Amino acid sequence: MEKVGIIIARCQPIHNGHIALIREALKSNNMVYVILGSANKFNVRNPIPIHVREELVNNSILEVFNKSDSGRIVVATLDDLSSEENNTIEWGFYLYAHIVELINQAFFTIYYSDGFETIVSWFPGFLLRNFVSLSLMARGSIEKGISATLVREYIMNGNDEKLKTSVPNYVFEQRDVIRRYIELSLMK
């Protein structure tokens, strides 16, 4: 059985915090799956459509990681079950079933940078005890607490200096496209 790391993120857009999570997961796993959540959402919180996010993530991975490591990373998508605030066990079962189908095995480790209480609420105890391992990294300790919300603010405010140090170069180069999607989401 392969050791598999899972990263669940919206990547709105991908930033250096996401890269740090991927890098950490690569250290301990044969394969790392980056699951882009909220694939079916387009709104102020999710302004970048899924096809654009997939392009940004895939090209950032190719840019940042060597060929051997990038070959161990798979990008997949996942629709929300209902609202993003749904942190119920139903969401956990939905997520678990999706991951098992994707990786074709029942055991994996989730790398996560949000609150411990949130991710633990997704899964019943028997899944956490027997199948799902958690590797939680404090958001504040990852890349100076960077978030996609902050990155979008840098893009909208034209703060290229801070943006350039917060995202892979490919994302920086696509900042005008991302800005247009953010503006469009604000018009909804």
Helix content: 40-55%
CATH superfamily: HUPs
| CATH architecture label | 3-Layer(aba) Sandwich
The helix/strand series, from N terminus to C terminus, equals: EHEHHEHEHHEHHHH
Question: Briefly, what CATH class?
Answer: Alpha Beta
Number-wise, the strands total: 5
Mean pLDDT: 92
Write the layout of secondary structure elements.
Layout: E1 4-9, H1 16-28, E2 31-36, H2 50-64, H3 67-70, E3 73-77, H4 89-103, E4 108-112, H5 116-122, H6 125-130, E5 132-136, H7 148-157, H8 160-164, H9 169-173, H10 175-187
Parallel strand pairs: 1-2, 1-4, 2-3, 4-5
Report on the structure:
- There is one protein chain.
- With 188 residues, the chain is of the alpha/beta class.
- 49% of the residues lie in helices and 14% in strands.
- It has one domain (4-187): HUPs (Rossmann fold, 3-Layer(aba) Sandwich), CATH 3.40.50.620.
- The protein has a 5-stranded parallel β-sheet, sandwiched between helices.
- Helix 1 (16-28) links the parallel strand 1 and strand 2.
Output the keywords.
alpha/beta, Rossmann fold, 5-stranded parallel sheet, 10 helices, globular
Task: Write a concise synopsis of the structure shown.
This protein is an alpha/beta fold and 188 residues long. The chain has helices at 16-28, 50-64, 67-70, 89-103, 116-122, 125-130, 148-157, 160-164, 169-173, 175-187, and strands at 4-9, 31-36, 73-77, 108-112, 132-136.
